[in-house]
Design a protein that fits this description.
Rossmann fold; 2 domains; elongated; 6-stranded parallel β-sheet; 231 residues; alpha/beta; DNA polymerase, domain 1
Length: 231
């Protein structure tokens, strides 16, 4: 019988397929605003550059160097700069349209719903995310995953961000969970896995792309269904 009672998940890049949903949204906005008329870049260029800029900004956010408004203000101007386009050509509403559209997309990683159904019959499931309250709530509802989770902890509702041990301690406190009966599952070695290590929590690294790891992790999986062999 498993010793675990509470399973904590990351959301983006672990359950909710951020890259697929973001790409779909960017392509839709590219067509809507007829950005091909700028004759500077294609849809693929826009998506590739978005991810480069976005990850850089989120890395800064995760270590507390910038805040939520900074991401929103800097993102698309920086993208257009890297693409060699004039900032004046950035549609004024593009950022707002993107953050309104992307969370409504429903793509999840293969096996996400199946494994959540399986785990929800045996454990209490929770979310720990560095995302924002309103956005994460929409993602969970749009992808029909909100039904599975009891406690959802975001960095926005706390003064902490993964990998701070305090956000994990707060999540356990709100869930009524004890450390020895808890496990963290996430894709990000620095925020999810190092964060779990910081608090002494058992953990699973979700690594669908087979990246080289820099940490000696407890468990590593490439497909969410593999959790059945651990839990």
């Amino acid at each position: 019988m498993s010793k675990y009672k509470h399973i904590f998940f990351d959301l983006d890049h672990t359950l909710w397929d951020y890259d697929t949903n973001a790409t779909d949204s960017l392509f839709e906005l590219f067509d809507k605003h007829q950005l091909d008329k700028l004759d500077r870049f294609g849809k693929g260029d826009l998506a590739k550059t978005f991810f480069e800029v976005n990850y850089d900004l989120w890395d800064l956010y995760n270590v507390g160097e910038i805040q939520r408004p900074d991401i929103r203000e800097r993102r698309f101007p920086a993208i257009f700069d890297r693409l060699g386009a004039n900032r004046a050509d950035v549609p004024a509403t593009l950022e707002l349209e993107y953050v309104s559209l992307a969370p409504t997309k429903s793509a999840t990683f293969v096996g996400a719903h199946d494994i959540l159904e399986y785990l929800s019959e045996k454990y209490e499931l929770h979310i720990i995310t560095n995302g924002f309250d309103d956005i994460q709530a929409i993602k969970l509802e749009s992808s029909n995953m909100d039904q599975f989770f009891d406690v959802i902890i975001t960095s926005e509702t706390t003064v902490y961000r993964k990998p701070d041990k305090e956000i994990f301690e707060l999540a356990m406190d709100r869930a009524g969970a004890q450390l020895e009966h808890s496990m963290m599952i996430g894709d990000n070695l620095e925020s999810d896995i190092r964060g779990a290590m910081n608090v002494g929590m058992d953990h699973v690294w979700f690594n669908p792309e087979g990246k080289d790891g820099r940490l000696a992790v407890q468990h590593e999986i490439k497909n969410l269904i593999e959790l059945k062999g651990i839990l």
